Automatic annotation (TrEMBL), chain A:
Keywords from the named record: 4Fe-4S, Iron, Iron-sulfur, Metal-binding
Protein known as: Formate dehydrogenase beta subunit
A GO molecular function held by the record: metal ion binding
Superkingdom of the organism of origin: Bacteria
Organism: Maricaulis maris
UniProtKB/TrEMBL annotation, chain B:
Positions of [2Fe-2S] cluster binding: C83, C88, C124, C128
Residue runs in coiled coils: none
GO molecular-function terms, A-Z: 2 iron, 2 sulfur cluster binding; metal ion binding; oxidoreductase activity
The entry's keywords: 2Fe-2S, Iron, Iron-sulfur, Metal-binding
Family per similarity comment: Belongs to the complex I 24 kDa subunit family.
Protein name: Formate dehydrogenase subunit gamma
Superkingdom of source: Bacteria
Species this chain originates from: Maricaulis maris
Amino acid sequence: MNTPPDRIFIPGDSAAISVGADQVADQLAAALPDTCRIIRNGSRGLFWLEPLVEIERDGERRGFGPVTPGDIADLVAAGFPDDHRLALGPVAAIPQLARQQRLIFARCGLNDPLDLDAWIATGGRAGLDTARALTPDAIIETVKTSGLRGRGGAGFPAGIKWETASKAKGDQTWLCCNADEGDSGTYADRLLMEGDPFTLIAGMCIAARAIGATGGLVYLRSEYPHAIRTLTAAIGIWCEAGLFAGLGDGDHFDIEVRTGAGAYICGEESSMLNSLEGKRGEVRAKPPIPAISGLFGQPTIVNNVLTLASVPWILEHGGEAYRDFGTGRSRGTQAFQLAGDIRHGALIELAFGVSLRTLIEDFGGGTRSGRPLRAVQVGGPLGAYLADADLDVAMDYEALAAIGGMLGHGGIVVFNDTVDMARQARFAMEFCTIESCGKCTPCRVGATRGREMLDKIIAGEAVADNLALIEDLCELMTDGSLCAMGGLTPMPVRSAIQRFPEDFTRQAAE
Amino acid sequence: MPMLIDTIDDQTARAACARQGNRPDGLIEILHDIQASAGFVSDAAIATLADALNLSRAEVLGVVSFYHDFKRQPGARHVLKLCRAEACQAAGGDAAAAEIERRLGALGVTEGDEPALEIRSVYCLGNCALSPAALLDETPIGRIDADRLMSELVAREIVEAEPQ
């Protein structure tokens, strides 16, 4: 048992680093013989176990976590025994991982994210190879058959968007990957870009072949310095290996990473296009849609990271196989992201239709604080606050919409019973005042007035009048805003008022 | 006009533009570049950018002022970004941030002409499963509490130890 492992894995993912993975790696390097290879892999997305050290012997990987630098001497001396208090057994059998349906994240955390040979050896290239043998129209048909919808939040069918752009007239067609993952409670794009960037690049290459794009841009937020470094390096390696060859219109395609500058609104596609043009990130009125006239007035596809990263699997296994996952009009898998006061914070990739309760209780293990759950915000800062009574909702686009919520980018933020929902509603308005691009009045002015009304409500001032007024304001913002920022800010506000009215009348009652 | 521009030319800005081929659509990258080397975007830099990219100064200033990342004044040597968004609120982030601000304030490191540290509120660092989250320059720190963060800052010699 005391022979050193063949290989040992410790994530280089920024979340793992945030809880000490670098220090653990340093300790391992000092304690182990040089014959043992230490690999900085991506994270498996089981964040409560980070730093998660994996020991490989005879092809099997066994986990230990969460490991602190102080545990290393003991672990190495004892030879990483199965009866250690940090032992997790075979990593692939950890229930929260074994029960997932990982299509997008199948390779995330397996290897060094920049090891192209390892990625190819695990079958990473199969989808792109299939696509190279297909005509652009056949690729688009496959994506349409799959039922894949945009994973950024809007849920528009990807194949139809691609078809529109492929038929649009222009001098050049652009492919823009939206990696401006600004929603609180979401980290799936970051995890993938840091853990398996080649799958995203492969997805972009397939999309470029389908729509005849010659220029590919990834708009990546500045809050993700690690993801910027990893993805930029991965693109260089991909280019060096000649894998961009034979794609796009005239066999030319490449990808460039562009760094955002701290504006949440730039996750909105038209605002992102302005930012990519070097302008203020103000939203554009639609029509025209970007597929017809987008970046520099040319046909442009804007797809989220996860939409594009779903495509290699779809091409490898076929549109029908992908469509077999999911429910109703929500096909395939969704990366659900558990966050906030949650015991087992993790990325859970599963077919649409799983209940919110299963995700939070079975996978998440309930609250980390041990306090009762009171509210759950699904879909980021513009998503609805749900209550315990809502937890049996099926997680798909339509079922969430039916209860006044939305799936968004798949973020799930759990709040315990200490939360004050009037303050959360106020924060939703405040966030909109900070991040509104200022282009349209309902959003720019509405958010400020909304925050003021909620301040009065919290102070117990003319509560009934202000609640009536804020409902009126929410209706105006929903109907009158140019984009989802102003249009959806009312969702967390209204859902909080509807589901937790006692938090809005408490001051007045006292 | 060239004379005027020459008198306030900013070599850093000029070089940053050249690296983007003097293309106006590269403005965001150019501003990141300038800020990385100069720490902020000066009046002289704005004038130079306008000249090099064939934009008006108002257009350049409009872009600079739109994005939270760009600063018009020299900043602190280190930046501590504290996430204040929902997932961090749900994990006690507001209380942690308030205590960190109070303790750093007591040390006086966040004030003065060239402070050692600037605390900046941000909205999501993408580390929401290990919230509350912080980013110290480019080092991510998860599950922050005031004690852990203060000892990290002392260990990095960004601040001195608090008086007992």
